[in-house]
Amino acid sequence: MIKVKHLYHSYSNDNKYAIKDLNFEIKKGEIFGFLGPSGAGKSTTQNILVGILQLQQGEVEVAGYNIKHIKNEMFNKIGMSFEQSNLYSKMSAFENLDFYRKLFDVETRDPNDMIKLVGLEGKENIKAGKYSKGMKHRLTFARSMINNPQMWFLDEPTTGLDPAISSQIKDIIKKENEKGVTIFLTTHNMYIADELCDRVAFIVDGKIRLIDSPKALKLKYGEKLVEVEYFKDGELIKDSFSTVFKDQKDKLIDVINKYEILTMHTKEASLEEIFIKVTGRGLV
Ligand SMILES: Nc1ncnc2c1ncn2[C@@H]1O[C@H](COP(=O)(O)OP(=O)(O)OP(=O)(O)O)[C@@H](O)[C@H]1O
Fold it and tell me: Which residues form the ABC transporter domain (predicted)?
């Protein structure tokens, strides 16, 4: 769905690059997370992929279209929900969606269905300018799906939303993906990346440091330990055992057989811990 080869971009047209030699491919139906701290080059990359920024150097193909010679019909196939939402503030939420859908040459969804989907029912006649930041975010998100995109670009889709709405948005993303929609998700929220993404790319200072699935990364970087809390002679004991060495495994089995276990879990590394280990940087 997306092919990126040797992609560079400079805002100053010199050899100071905001992104340097990016290479990656995204398969149809995949959720690909682009993870990195502020200023890493996420928006620059995303803006090139959707044609907002002109391609300077490298090769980019999106939904079968060469970005060097963008054809308008490409926009029928893609959807984008970015932080700078560019909603028409004097139009109501309904009017915003109804106006936007007319820009496409493909079948579009009913604006009222979209409004309902993102929990803005009853607020469709309020002018977008009067919407809160979170409501604008949801409206932009709804707008980005109105043309049934095959390739969906999402920039920080849950940022600034309360937990209930955030969970609703994640469910919508999962459902669309189940229908075969390919998703490029830009975020510095490792939880959403971990929960949603099939693969993630770590980007720092304009360079991709690593691409892999969250599961493979956790296996590779997680500690092979089981942490156990158990009662021994009425006293609560906390201990951890290696799952690699035989004597430790035997001890763990012994504890399980002899004592009452309160909790037991493997010690997994979080994506954030892995990001710091790999890049030497935090995600914020
Ligand atoms: N319009 C611009 N003009 C000049 N430099 C820019 C411009 N936009 C971004 N940059 C620079 O390019 C680099 C990458 O920025 P970019 O916005 O792509 O990062 P980001 O990972 O999206 O950050 P954030 O998470 O804060 O949005 C940064 O050093 C930034 O200062």
Answer: 2-230
